[in-house]
Amino acid sequence: MSLFLLTFGLLMLIAVAMAVGVIVQKKSMASSCGGLGSVGIDKACDCDDPCDKRKKRMAKEEIWKENQIL
């Protein structure tokens, strides 16, 4: 039982260390596939002029792309 607790504690320590590393860098994590942009699709909706809520979300996505970890 003590071996299990020691192993579990070590894994939790590693997970916390990785989480602190991401928080300290202040950058969001990026996926490996790149999403819809990797297949040539610029936006998910077909609107020519998106609504204000969508425009705000798109602006946040642009900021996220600038800060993403490669």
β content, as a range?
A: under 5%
Q: What value does the Rg take, in angstroms?
A: 19 Å
Principal-axis shape equals elongated
User: Main β-sheet, in a few words?
Assistant: none
Order of helices and strands: HH
Mean pLDDT: 80
| Number of DSSP-assigned strands | 0
Unreliable parts: none
Q: Portion of residues in helices? A: 55-70%
Contiguous helical run count: 2
Compute the separation of the termini in Å.
40 Å
Class from secondary-structure proportions: mainly alpha
Structure description:
The chain is mainly α. The chain has two helices and no strands. The radius of gyration is 19 Å and the shape is elongated. The model has no long low-confidence stretch (mean pLDDT 80).
Characterize this entry briefly.
The protein is mainly α and 70 residues long. The chain has helices spanning 2-25, 52-67.
Comma- or semicolon-separated keywords:
2 helices; elongated; about 70 residues; mainly alpha
SSE topology:
Layout: H1 2-25, H2 52-67
